[in-house]
Amino acid sequence: MFQFHLDHTDTSSSARCGRWETPHGVVETPAFMPVGTRGSVKGVWPHQLAETGAQMILANTYHLTLRPGEKVVQELGGLHEFMGWNGPILTDSGGFQVFSLGALRQLDDDRVVFKSHIDGSILDLTPARAMQIQEDLGADCIMCLDECPPHDAPVSKLEEAVARTTRWAQICRETHKRADQALFGIVQGGIHPQLRERSAEGLLKLDFPGYAVGGLSVGESPEEMYRTLDFTTPMLPKEKPRYLMGVGRPIDIIEGVLRGIDLFDCVMPTRNARNATAFTSHGTVKMRNLKYQTDREPLDSECDCSTCQQFSRGFLRHLFTVGEMLGPMLLSVHNLRFYQRVVTELRSAIKSNSAQEFRREHLARMRDGP
After folding, report:
1. Most buried one in 160, 278, 300, 347, CB count within 10 A?
2. Would residue 108 show up in a list of annotated catalytic residues for this protein?
3. Burial category of 100 from C-beta neighbours within 10 Å (exposed 0-12, middle 13-18, buried 19 and up)
4. In 3D, which of 190, 258, 197 has the Cα closest to residue 232?
5. Which CATH superfamily hosts domain 3-266?
6. Active-site pick, 10, 92, 252, 300
7. Where in the chain is the domain with CATH 3.20.20.105?
8. Which of 51, 129, 60, 53 is nearest to 89 (CA)?
């Protein structure tokens, strides 16, 4: 039901391209997954997501459990029918909220107890409960419950997080029952090689269908993240998909691919779009800038998305100036298409053994500016 085919590895780096077979379709890797935290990628219809080139999308266990509740989603046919998305879906376990909602949770070796950010109600999330919720939601790929500590946590806290994540992974492995879901283990350990190795060793014994690298893009510098990937990714099985959670900027995706990562997700394309910032072939564009007021050119002359094919920079700036909701929607479509173009072009570069050259060209274009 789940098979990962490694088709080619770049001769000048660890970049690789492959195909991951899932119950709802094949994902060509490397791949970027748009984030639909609450069951919707903000401002974008499912058919528009498909038109951008998205193959797989992500939703969040914590948020969907609070509203509308996993049983409601199950009653409405599971996530695919609920969201109107026929392709593969991945759900995070709520482990990132251990980090992002630190002020609203209590953590011990058995569970994390959240005080809802919505109404103060209690969500008691154990590893077994995380599995039950994700089985009810029905995503193709699901994640073990883990502890994602902040990047500046003391080593003693990172050691505790690694130990807790490993214990919870074993419970998740034993509890999870659905054969039509791939359960991923999550490697933690901050930016410390020994802790990452300890975490990977504990998870590899459990023989997960795939492995994620967690605990990055949480405040460390890009250089620290890349260095951590340098020593972490080789610890993970070559024959299984590797997922870098919550990353990130286009250059971060490129750097991750060069280090052997296959799957990525991030809210950045749509979040930046809502804040009037576009990713283009020659750098970022701030759409509220007065210089675009009478600009008749498309947002990105090299982009084939519906936004660039139909609308001018002047019109897009107008939408943001007057607060029209169409502005964030059109920019979201463009940014998502930009990300998909990056990974599509990366796949081609890997097949021609030119991934390093692709990176150099991307950096040069970004320096040129829009």
Report:
1. 278
2. no
3. middle
4. 197
5. Queuine tRNA-ribosyltransferase-like (3.20.20.105)
6. 92
7. 3-266
8. 60
